[in-house]
Amino acid sequence: MEKPLSPRESGQFVAERSRDVFVDEDGVKRVAQMIYELRDSEEFTASGWKMMNPLAPSPDSDEAINWVFVTDTMNFSFWPEREEEQCEVLCRGNTYRGYMSLCAAVTRAMDEGVPITNPTYFSQISEAELAKVLRSDSGTPMPMLRERHQALTEAGRVLAEHGGSFRMFMSHCENDAEKMVKYIVENIPSYRDEATYEGKRISFYKRAQILVADFWGIMEARGEGHIPNLDYLTMFADYRVPQGLVHLGALRYSDALMETLKKGELLSSGERRELEIRGCSIWCVERIRQHLWKLVEERDGKSCHINSALIDFYLWPYAKKHHSEMAHIPIHHTRCIYY
Question: What's the Enzyme Commission number for this chain (predicted)?
Fold first, then answer.
């Protein structure tokens, strides 16, 4: 079978052929300008990662590296069937929803003495034990328990075969972001976020790329984060960032697609419109990055440190923060293990 295009190549391939999703160059330039004005802020540093996720263990512990592995391995499909029926997890006096409910559940388990970040434990955890770890404090359970259990135990077994920790697993990759993404995808099946679009094999590798970015964030906070080619990473194609890009005018949906999404119609994983939303989002952020780098070079006379992953780390909380302003723009709904 042919090797799929890389996520960046896939984004461009899809954007050049897309029928229902379009990158708007004027909007792209506006977003690049907006980020240019914030270019020196804390939001575009690795320490911003820690601020964004207060539930993560202190980065100076190896436990933090395994914590990231556990949460990223189960980081998919948190949207509720109905807006008012959200899974909620209470941890250290705060209530969390969405992806943060998973982080809260894992940290709560650690506080309760469950060795959830130990690969020997989570490679063998039963579905019932994981259900207890991920239990909801509202009436709505976290979706896809069986799939999360399968992903976590399978990934734990892979770590056991590669030195017994995520850090040991990553030591095979020589601080190379491209090798890291490929090594994760080759060895851990649930990270193989691939599809076929217009007869071509493509990939988005959303969770694998986030895992590399999170690993870098922790190592950077420890002063060990030397991954020279981190620019290999693209944005992480999910359902929240595309909504933000549409709100900011950098991405545009056809009327037919907008109508479909407003009706709440489910898009299946790998169908054309779903691939176009994800692929065009990747290419949209690539164009924002290219314009941003040009602005920094022309106006500041230097190269820009802000890569696509950091732009994503800014856009995701931006979309959460401006949730009510963009409520009229529907997110697309796809139940799958890839995002």
Answer: 3.2.2.-
CB-based burial label for 168 (10 Å; 0-12, 13-18, 19+): middle
Q: Which residue has the tokens 């933090």?
A: 64
Quote the CA–CA distance of 155 and 249 in Å, as a whole number.
38
- 10 Å CB burial of residue 2 (0-12, 13-18, 19+) is exposed
211-250 pLDDT, tens digit per residue, is 999 998 888 888 888 899 999 999 999 999 999 999 999 9
Name every residue whose Cβ is closer than 8 Å to that of residue 168 and which is 6 or more positions away in sequence: 159, 162
DSSP notation for 135-187 = --SSSSPPS-HHHHHHHHHHHHHHHHHTTSSHHHHHGGGTT-HHHHHHHHHHH
Q: Write b or e for each residue in 10-21: b if 16 or more Cβ atoms lie within 10 A of its Cβ, otherwise e.
A: bbbbbbeebebb
Could you tell me which of 60, 97, 56, 103 has the C-alpha nearest to residue 80? 97
d(CA 216, CA 236): 15
CA angle 11, 12, 17 (to 5 degrees): 100
Helices (H), the chain: 7-15, 25-37, 46-52, 62-73, 99-111, 119-122, 127-133, 145-161, 166-170, 177-187, 206-221, 240-247, 255-262, 272-300, 308-321
Provide Rg for the chain, Cα atoms.
19
DSSP-based three-state secondary structure for 30: helix
Q: Which positions are catalytic?
A: 238
- From the number of C-beta atoms within 10 Å of its C-beta (0-12, 13-18, 19+), residue 58 rates as exposed
Answering whether pTM is above 0.90, one says yes
Say how far apart CA 296 and CA 304 lie, in whole Å.
6
How many CA atoms, within 13 angstroms, populate the side-chain half-sphere of residue 290?
Answer: 9
Classify burial at 202, counting beta carbons within 10 Å of its beta carbon; exposed 0-12, middle 13-18, buried 19 or more.
buried
The tokens describing 278, both together, are 């994800």
pLDDT in tens, 168-219: 999 999 999 999 999 999 999 999 999 999 999 999 999 999 999 999 888 8
